[in-house]
């Protein structure tokens, strides 16, 4: 398979989306995820048992599908750049027939993706590190640009996150960023068996998205969207506890930034 460490996590989240899509009460349906998982040679036995990883992936997908879908509705001809895309299939779920989509990931991950998910005339995969400014020069359409940074920052250090923001800042005069952040308390204490099985570790996070503006003052913080909002859609009975501040501060959130 030739995937190492964090690279393997892209298969775990794809598995979670495929499994959810085949449930009777699914909140999104991802036929591409089902198709790809049926072809991938990987032992998903640990991922199958990791309910916390599955719940987090489903909640994040519900939240980001809603957020990205709303952005596309408001900007039907937009360009979307998915940084550290892995095996993400959001384009297949949300395509309106007009958007242009770029997937950016490390060379090994990008090549692995292309074995199972081919590019199209409006989808381009770019083999770069998120911190490499080279990918920015390959984005051809720069009107109404949305950056999605999902499932990445918790595996990086603060300098890496700062560098990603710098690349975006120096190459795009106007844009919106949806960046998933893990709170520090969860970086230190969260345990996901399937993630640990890949020898990956959570490293970095901030308590509130407004703290990201300290890394680059050219960005304006708009709001944070807690992933418990997705949990509440998937498991409505969880609402009796997901409002508790002590729990919400432990859950990942999507920081919305604008420039």
Automatic annotation (TrEMBL):
Protein's name in the database: O-Methyltransferase involved in polyketide biosynthesis
An example Gene Ontology molecular-function term: methyltransferase activity
Example of a GO biological process term: methylation
InterPro entries reported for this sequence: Ppm1/Ppm2/Tcmp (IPR007213), SAM-dependent_MTases_sf (IPR029063), TcmP-like (IPR016874)
Domain of life: Archaea
Record bears the keyword Electron transport: no
Keyword Manganese assigned: no
Annotated source species: Methanobrevibacter millerae
Keywords, sorted A to Z: Methyltransferase, Transferase
């Amino acid at each position: 398979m030739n995937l190492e460490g964090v690279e393997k996590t892209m298969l775990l989240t794809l598995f979670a989306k495929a499994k959810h899509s085949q449930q009777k009460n699914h909140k999104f349906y991802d036929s591409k995820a089902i198709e790809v998982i049926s072809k991938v040679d990987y032992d998903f036995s640990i991922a199958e048992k990791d309910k916390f990883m599955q719940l987090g992936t489903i909640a994040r997908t519900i939240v980001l599908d809603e957020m990205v879908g709303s952005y596309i509705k408001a900007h039907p001809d937009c360009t979307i750049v998915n940084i550290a895309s892995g095996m993400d299939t959001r384009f297949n779920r949300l395509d309106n027939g007009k958007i242009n989509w770029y997937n950016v990931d490390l060379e090994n991950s990008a090549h692995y993706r292309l074995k199972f998910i081919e590019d199209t005339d409006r989808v381009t995969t770019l083999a770069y590190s998120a911190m490499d400014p080279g990918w920015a020069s390959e984005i051809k359409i720069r009107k109404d640009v949305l950056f999605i940074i999902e499932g990445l920052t918790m595996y990086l250090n603060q300098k890496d996150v700062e560098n990603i923001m710098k690349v975006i800042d120096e190459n795009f005069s106007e844009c919106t960023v949806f960046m998933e952040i893990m709170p520090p308390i969860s970086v230190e204490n969260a345990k996901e068996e399937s993630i640990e099985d890949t020898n990956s570790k959570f490293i970095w996070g901030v308590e509130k998205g407004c703290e990201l503006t300290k890394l680059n003052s050219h960005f304006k913080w708009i709001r944070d969207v807690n992933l418990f909002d997705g949990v509440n859609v998937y498991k409505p009975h969880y609402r009796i506890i997901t409002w508790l501040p002590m729990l919400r501060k432990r859950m990942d959130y999507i920081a919305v930034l604008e420039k």
